[in-house]
Amino acid sequence: MADAPSLEAFKARLDVALGSLVWWLVTLYIAGGLKLDDRCGPFQPSKKSLSGVVQHLRNGQLLREIYINKHKLLLNDWTAKQLYLETTGKSRTLQSALALLYTFLPDFDWKKINMRHQWSTIFCSGSCDCPMRNHYLEEEQRRQYSLRVKNSDLEKIYVDMAKIVGIPTRQLRASNPIDSLLCYFCHNVSFPCTKTGCIGMEHFKVIKRHQLEDERERQEKKLYFLYALLATHPLLNQTVNRLQRIAEGKKEEIFVLRSAHDVTLSPVLSALGITEARFPRFAARLVFELWQDGKRPKEHFIRILYNGADVTFQTSFCKDYYKRSSKPMCPLEKFVSFVKRDMFLVFNSTSYYDACRRRPL
Predict the structure, then answer these.
(1) pLDDT > 90 fraction of the chain, expressed in percent and rounded
(2) The domain boundary residue, chosen from 181, 196, 221
(3) Residue 201, class by beta-carbon neighbours within 10 Å (0-12 exposed, 13-18 middle, 19+ buried)?
(4) How many domains would you assign to the chain?
(5) Mean pLDDT of 66-89
(6) Which DSSP state fits 38?
(7) What is the span of the domain harbouring residue 174?
(8) Which one of 311, 317, 323, 333 has the lowest number of neighbouring Cβ atoms within 10 Å?
């Protein structure tokens, strides 16, 4: 587990490396710089906190024990070609990636890191033009709004909190205050106080209760699921293509890291059919593993882990396989079929392009 010396060592290495990482700040369009901050600001964009860095240092150590020490995925003489690293333009996602890589990679070297910038939070790269994805997102947002305005307790809490922090209610509502409150709650820091009063646990409980109710209705209405299928197809398609290349014997990009957001991970979980997964917590991780059959080298399987738990057979494309097979993994071809074909069936389409433009009957 990462301890204080690990954190201090990482901070020292980061400070030394900043001079050679100036091009990242330009090339990656990093918002907010790379300074670490352990303070929670009321309803303001957050930087990566020291506690958050420790979480990712621990993630890196855990992944290193499994994939480096046990399975020898990367050796000490690893090269940049074996890695594919991508982050959004927020400083906290870059900081998260660097913290994880610092404890994951053998003989970590800043100069060997090539971090790519992804402008889209859903990592759609060159396949972002999808009108129906936007349509389903708008419908989902209308559903969220309808549920919110029906909750008189929630509105009272918003009004009270806005008075305390001294901003208009509409601004506080738009800032998604649960994110700010979670920063205080998860860091075991007292909620903020002003001359007008204090935000307290009663505010947090009402908002959290509404969030859980929203998650339940979201699964029932299926609008978010339809959005998720179209939003995540480009990312899942890239994942499938890379797994297929590795299965064919390619040795490049055998380790992929995408440092993203809850709004990236949540639709992926939904699209895969992992309905039991809760909204992503801080430092959540989703891992796709590719395995080769030792006796039949041409046969390949995948395993999917969410925060360390095996969720492979919670996916919509491998639930039935689990019932009739003793293997603890899912055939790669089932994942390929899901991404290349089955994701579009609910839209009565056979391709991503068509599904993005076909209006529901």
Answers:
(1) 63
(2) 221
(3) exposed
(4) 2
(5) 94
(6) -
(7) 151-221
(8) 323
